[in-house]
Design a protein that fits this description.
By secondary structure, this protein is mainly alpha-helical. The protein is built from four helices and two strands, in the order βαβααα.
């Protein structure tokens, strides 16, 4: 715990290997024991944090919930909106006949 503040982004997105969970526990437990501030972002719901799937996750989530005040940020998911417009553009390309698509310019390198 050398740093004044630790921020963990997207908790729950990491690989659920025994090694990864042990490393995450070690980091969070170190902050917990040093009583140093910690900010954690996650897409997990509060109920998922309170009722983890196993003991390894429970050890991590218990320490986070004891030291951190949960704050829900509700609103639009911009990544989903962007993905939807990319899919729509791809669908348009696929369904538009090749003859009516704009053709790339051919450069003359002679």
């Amino acid at each position: 715990g050398d740093y004044d503040l630790l921020i963990i982004d997207d908790l729950g997105a990491e690989r659920n290997t025994e090694y990864a969970l042990e490393q995450m526990f070690s980091i969070i437990d170190s902050r917990y024991r040093c009583n140093k501030p910690l900010i954690v972002t996650t897409n997990l719901k509060l109920d998922e944090l309170k009722h983890p799937p196993d003991l390894a996750h429970a050890r991590i989530y218990d320490r986070i919930l004891e030291r951190c005040a949960p704050i829900l940020f509700a609103g639009k998911n911009f990544r989903e909106d962007n993905a939807a417009s990319i899919k729509a553009a791809a669908r348009q390309i696929i369904t538009t006949p090749a003859a009516s698509r704009p053709q790339p310019r051919k450069e003359n390198y002679e």
